[in-house]
Specification:
This protein has 10 helices and 11 strands. By secondary structure, it is of the alpha/beta class. The mean pLDDT is 88.
Length: 292
Amino acid sequence: MLEPDLLRCFVAVAENRSFSEAGRQLGISQPTVSQRVRRLEEQTGRSLIARDTHSVALTDGGEAMLAFARRTLAVLDEAQAYFSGPAERATVRFGTADDLALTHLPGILRDFRRKNPHIDVEITVGQSAAVARRLRAGALDLVYVRQEPGIAEGRVVRREQLIWGAHPSLRLDPGEVVPLVTYPRPSHSRAAAVTALEAAGRRWKATCTVRDITGILAGVRAGLGVAVFPGGMMPPDLVRADAALGLPHLDTLDFALIDDPSAPRAPIEALSTAIIDSHTREARQLPGASEG
């Protein structure tokens, strides 16, 4: 039988491509990490990791083991969460910006549900300003929303560089009125676009005004204009249009967690931790992250 501790160690090495980083993540020494991986290799009779002085790579057997190990550990974690959690169910009323709901949140919520089977999540999706108002009105317990940098409210989880996005077919001559696909006021991305264009002396016109991210995407894909996206959230079928269309540099945008201090803390803390941990893992995997 494959031991869970060995599987966890192997997955940490595979995901971090580093024995030392795996040890730091698991709170054990690097020699212990190496020993556990060797034991797993002995149990399977396969070489799982190709090691040299500069890199850590998975063998074909290692790639197969990574898939098996993740599924096995997910089931074990789910069982552990179920039997160690409270018998009574809890609910967290959660609100989020719509672009987050289409990009980062589905995976986070799947993982959260697996690890916290006793906590139900009621989800409200909309523009950040509307979602934040519902929190202040007592209709939500926790929100994950856009806000301008420097606002001391909640906990900033991620900071994104705003970029211009367009359909590859869109053309724009220098000095031509910039067509915007945008949300109605108030909107952080609309304000960022208008501020940048007016500071650069560019004329603009809202050619398509919509109330949700699906409308933004439809308008941009139809070639009706350019839109502002957080850098890590623009769909791959659109192109970055800053340089190509001569558009001005945009500011950054924060995504923050804000909660109702009077709401039950346990479900709020559990979901907040899941979101923060997911972003931390994502940041470690970005190009340029240090190799252990």
